[in-house]
Specification:
2 domains; about 190 residues; Beta Polymerase, domain 2; alpha+beta; two-stranded antiparallel sheet
């Protein structure tokens, strides 16, 4: 198996997709950020085996207390940088503290700050009916589902999502009404 991994690393290095660095007796490999397909590879990894899987595994310990969880902001827009944090919306009956505790290991594994915004379903329904600025903005921009999906959000009151696909969320053209207050964001 070690030989197969070594051959794979050599092929990726030869294709200039990864960089190889030697420090003493250690050999390090890193994605080549200047490779023409780096943005696509980064997006593919983040949407498959990377970010989403790590967050899904962390939130699984909340069970049914987390109905919907989605990443919004730079990650689903494909603008994630080395210094970017992860903005996460969690809808369910789990407390903010429970969510923070569940995400502690994921934050360490990802090497990124995770900023959860936690709402109970009843509050989401109320705020969506009132066209709450923060929620309508988050739900009208690209998002990456960790738990649940558009169907659950439609059941919670995001009716305009029913006609949109998850890959092309579009914007709600209706006025947002009163801006309300944005939930407090805490660093894990």
């Amino acid at each position: 198996m070690v030989g197969a991994v070594q051959r794979g690393l050599n092929q990726l290095t030869a294709a200039d997709l990864i960089r190889r660095a030697v420090q003493g007796r250690q050999v390090y490999f890193q994605a080549n950020r200047e490779a023409p397909i780096f943005p696509e590879l980064r997006g593919l990894f983040a949407k498959t085996a990377g970010l989403a899987d790590v967050l899904r595994e962390a939130l699984a310990q909340l069970g049914e207390r987390a109905l919907v969880a989605l990443v919004f902001g730079s990650a689903p827009r494909g603008e994630l940088r080395a210094s970017s944090d992860i903005d996460l919306l969690v809808i369910g009956d789990a407390s903010f503290q429970d969510v923070v505790e569940a995400l502690a290991g994921a934050q360490e594994r990802l090497g990124r700050e995770i900023n959860p915004n936690v709402y109970p379903p009843s509050e989401v329904r109320k705020k969506l009916r009132a066209k709450h600025h923060f929620l309508t903005t988050v739900l009208s921009e690209p998002r990456m589902y960790i738990l649940g999906g558009d169907d659950e959000l439609v059941r919670l009151g995001a009716k305009w999502l029913a006609d949109k696909t998850p890959d092309q969320p579009g914007r709600d053209s209706r006025p947002t009404g009163s801006r309300g207050t944005r939930p407090r964001r805490y660093r894990c």
